[in-house]
Amino acid sequence: MKNLTLILILLFSTNVFASGGGQSYEPAGTNIRSKESLRNGAKFYMNYCSACHSLQYQRYNRMAEDLGMSKDEVMENLVFTDAKFPDHMTNTMDNDQVKKSEWFYAAYPKDLTLIAKARGVDWLSAYLKSFYKDDKRPSGWNNTVFDKASMPHVMWELQGIQGAEFDSHEDENGIVSYEFKGFTQITEGSMSPEEFDETIRDVVNFLDYSAEPAKLIRMAYAPWVIPVSYTHLTLPTIYSV
Ligand code: HEC
Predict the structure, then answer these.
(1) Interacting residues of 239 by C-beta distance below 8 A, sequence separation 6+
(2) DSSP characters for 205-216?
């Protein structure tokens, strides 16, 4: 029974192993079983992220099948390159273009296929909501979750422009540290804050699915199936009980 409890805990804590460095973030509220949310996430992902980021292990036809979309829906609405239906989802900008771009003098946009596993969904959600105007940065943007990120706020028209307020503390050695106090709304976005939160939830849900498309099938059978990808992590724990 103890073993079963452990298995169940591990089964429902998929992102426990991928937390964002100890800090806790508001729950992303994603639900991988909601195809509507995944389809909406795919739409925003393709429109706002795919120019710079690839999902190189994901294929358009697999996504269509998993999300319940037809070939035409995907090819007409979500593919902006000359990619074919069975192709991998590579980025729209070619890599030379990306490297020459003025924004990316310091960092390049990574492939995002496994980002939900690496960072965790809560971190991703917090990151995408935490861009603020910072004229000291070359892109004009900074991020309270990822300080000095060289990614611009690509969804600013939807969210509106935020400013960030910080308190500064100076320690006995004269070292100044800054504590984030909160955001201020500089301009309104085309979406309400609730609509924007839902959009981010769906984009993050889509990235969570992309990190492990098999999870959709697994979740359909949960709690009776042990997650295959974690058996190497769970087994030693179970044996040691
Ligand atoms: C204009 C190009 C561009 C677009 C469009 C873009 N990004 Fe980025 N993104 C970047 C760059 C550059 C970085 C690297 C930031 C750094 O390391 O300083 C980055 C970093 C990230 C990271 C952090 C990766 C890490 O290091 O862990 C995530 C997550 C991310 N982007 C998600 C998204 C999502 C989701 C979208 C769509 C809503 C998006 N990006 C759109 C350029 C872009």
Answers:
(1) none
(2) HHHHHHH-THHH
CB distance 52 to ligand 1 below 6 Å: yes
Residue with tokens 């591990």: 10
C-beta of 140 in contact with ligand 1 (< 6 A):
no
| Gap from CA of 215 to ligand 1 centroid (Å) | 24
**Interval between CA 49 and ligand 1 midpoint (Å):** 8
Ligand 1 neighbourhood includes 53 CB (under 6 angstroms): yes
134 and 142 Cβ atoms separated by less than 8 Å: yes
Q: What is the C-alpha to C-alpha distance for residues 26 and 23, in angstroms, rounded to an integer?
A: 10
User: What pLDDT, in 10s, does the model give residues 115-148?
Assistant: 999 999 999 999 999 999 999 998 899 999 999 9
Ordered structural domains, the chain, with CATH: 2-240 (1.10.760.10)
Shortest-distance Cα residue to atom 40 of ligand 1: 49
Say if ligand 1 is within 6 A of residue 152 CB. Answer: yes
**Which segments of the chain are extended strands (E)?**
55-59, 88-89, 131-133, 141-143, 162-170, 176-185
CA–CA gap between residue 129 and residue 63 (Å, rounded): 25
151 Cβ closer than 6 Å to some ligand 1 atom: yes
Q: Scanning the structure block, which residue is given the tokens 């990808």?
A: 229
How far does residue 145's CA lie from ligand 1's centre (Å)?
13
- Read off the pLDDT of residues 38-57 as tens digits, 9 standing for 90 and up: 999 999 999 999 988 999 88
**0.85 cut: is pTM over it?**
no
